[in-house]
Structures are given as structure tokens and as C-alpha cells.
Design a protein that fits this description.
Blueprint (H helix, E strand, L loop, with lengths): L3 H17 L5 H6 L7 E3 L6 E2 L1 H12 L2 E17 L2 E14 L6 E14 L2 E11 L4
Parallel strand pairs: 1-6
Antiparallel strand pairs: 1-2, 3-4, 4-5, 5-6
């Protein structure tokens, strides 16, 4: 079950994803949870725990992109109940990497979990990996 405020938040989340693939991690920093636990399983593998470490990893990730990319989130399932919410889906992007002359297609499988903190949705877990053919 989804509520209107989470639907609205997901529109903001799509804008945040677009900023990220254009080299700007600041909007993502704003929605990372400040209370523990918080975790990140990024598309390059490994894992990161803790809000400040996640923000640092996000800033490093966004710094790999140059302006001129585009991004679309395809939500396959989403819901919220009380103080927890999630979405599962795909992120389709065409990005400009700082070290490549041509745009690069980047499709990810994404699962994100959010918790309300002070009345706002905050990201407590992100798992993103590359979408590959079965």
C-alpha cells in the first residue's frame, strides 16, 4: 500500500537520481539517513555502513559523472507502512563519464528502503547492481 506522501517522495527520488548521474551528490546526501543503521551495496560491489561513509561513497560515485546525462526510474513494486517504505525497480541512465568521450548506457537493478526521520523519508539501505541479460 502506498500513500500520497511516498508517491510524492518518489518523484523527488527520481530527480535526485538524475542529479547524481550528472555529477551532483548533494541532493542524495540530503536523503541519506542520519540515524543508524544505514547501508549501501553499490553497483561496483562491496558494502558501506554508516551515514557519513555512505555520503562519502556517494560523493565519490557522483564525481565520476559529467553533466549531460539522463536517468529514468522504473518502479516495479513500492509500498509504505507506517515509518518504513521501499521501492524495487530499474534505473535506466545514459551517462557521461568524465574519462570517456561518448555517453554510456547504465541500467541498474535497485532496491531501496526508507525510514521516516523527523517526518521525512530517509534512505536507510540501497542495493544497486548492473542489470544483465539472464
Amino acid at each position: 500500500m502506498k500513500h500520497a506522501d511516498f508517491d510524492q517522495f518518489m518523484k523527488t527520488r527520481a530527480q535526485i537520481a538524475s542529479a547524481f548521474v550528472n555529477g551532483d551528490a548533494a541532493p542524495l546526501d540530503q536523503i541519506v539517513a542520519s540515524r543508524e543503521p544505514s547501508t549501501l551495496f553499490g553497483p561496483r560491489g562491496g558494502h558501506v555502513s554508516g551515514a557519513e561513509q555512505i555520503r562519502r561513497a556517494d560523493r565519490h560515485g557522483a564525481a565520476q559523472f559529467a553533466p549531460g546525462g539522463d536517468c529514468r526510474i522504473e518502479v516495479l513494486a513500492a509500498g509504505d507502512g507506517g515509518d518504513l517504505a521501499y521501492w524495487v525497480g530499474l534505473q535506466h541512465a545514459r551517462v557521461r563519464m568524465k574519462d570517456k568521450p561518448e555517453p554510456v548506457a547504465m541500467d541498474l537493478r535497485v532496491t531501496e528502503i526508507f525510514r521516516r526521520e523527523d517526518g521525512q523519508w530517509k534512505l536507510i539501505h540501497c542495493h544497486a547492481d548492473r542489470l544483465t541479460a539472464p
